[in-house]
User: What shape does this take?
Amino acid sequence: MPAGRSEKTGTDFDALAASALARCDVLARCTEREGEITRTFLSPAMEECHDHIRGWMEDAGMTIGVDRAGNLRGYYADLELNEDAPRLIVASHLDTVPRAGCYDGILGVMLGLAMVEALDGRRLNFGVEVVGFSDEEGVRYGLPFIGSRAFIGKLLPPHLARRDADGVAMFAALDGYASAHPDVVSAAHHPQSRGYLEFHIEQGPVLEHAGLALGVVETIAGQSRAMLKFRGRAGHAGTTPMFLRRDALAAAAEWLVAVESAAAAMPGMVATTGQISCETGAANVIPGLVCCSLDVRHASDEMRHAAVQEFLATARSIAERRQIEVEHAIEYDQPAVGLDAGLIALADKAVLGAGVSPRHMTSGAGHDAMIVAARIPAAMIFLRNPGGISHHPDEAVLVEDVASALRAGLHFLHYFPDYLQNHLQRLTESEPDSCTT
Ligand SMILES: [Zn+2]
Assistant: This one.
């Protein structure tokens, strides 16, 4: 028996993994711009991508539809071929950033499909719905997670009123999509959706550094975004002595190095200045005004908020010492999202079953799982990302890691009925006893 096959079922995980990757390559050719991968919300390239996946899903015995938010949905019915059986959702997104790699999002959908293929026609006592979300990156409307927001009923009127670069409102784009696809189904998730599983490349170097193929996401980090303005005094670079300067850029530089070392000393904290602009911006002028960004992420909202306050206090004390001014504006405060403890435990068993020792991780990037988790218990498994590069054509994944992910996926399917049973029991226990008066 070849090494890639399961002894119990004869499933050739290596072949299925290779096929999932080959499909990612096929889908990479569905692009809005020749020579790169760019695929946005409701675009013809997305339509083409759906056509490919639809064919593969049909061959795997699934029923397929697109919903009103442009999500592609394939259902693999349970033993009794019941549309209303409890179901597990396996999903990720099919859109990309401009000039993307092949795997961010797409691999998660291909793994969902490969899990169904690995069943080889065998039906379970629950349904499996594989969903390819229409938008996660937010490229067209500057609003991420359109697909998963619609899925949990959180695509709201202010979102729908947003306009793209051509002035097309989101509601108009969605209406156009629905008239072009008269058979669209409701975007809402099925009421029997009992669990959500998302596979995703890590988009970072942690698993590679640890020498692990897979990791189990425990929390999706909360995020703070602030803009700071350091206001000094512009002056002539040749005539102003060093002790009379109020150099805004030197102050900002001192501050961001201080933030870097402070964050490095706080476990699990990441803090970044990725944008900086400097006035006057001439080689012979002392900088008078510097604007820079601050992005802070952590699994604990309390620790993140405390860190942001500390970084701002550092900016104030540097400014005071250098006799310049500093002001800030908090632009964004997104709370951390903890995934479901029961499904995390199940993901641990599944990953262990695939021969990988389960490591819990915080996701520093946002994912559909964090949106869906508000309504459906969610779990997420990361795949090692060689080089830690994502949102870039060099994005990579190893075929043997994809095979391990698929093995973990099959173990997840195997254990899911236990989870359903326990979940049901918890629900019954928490219900008030209607007989007692
Ligand atoms: Zn993604």
Q: What stands out?
A: The chain has a mean pLDDT of 94. The first helix runs from residue 13 to 28. The chain has twelve helices and 16 strands. The radius of gyration is 25 Å.
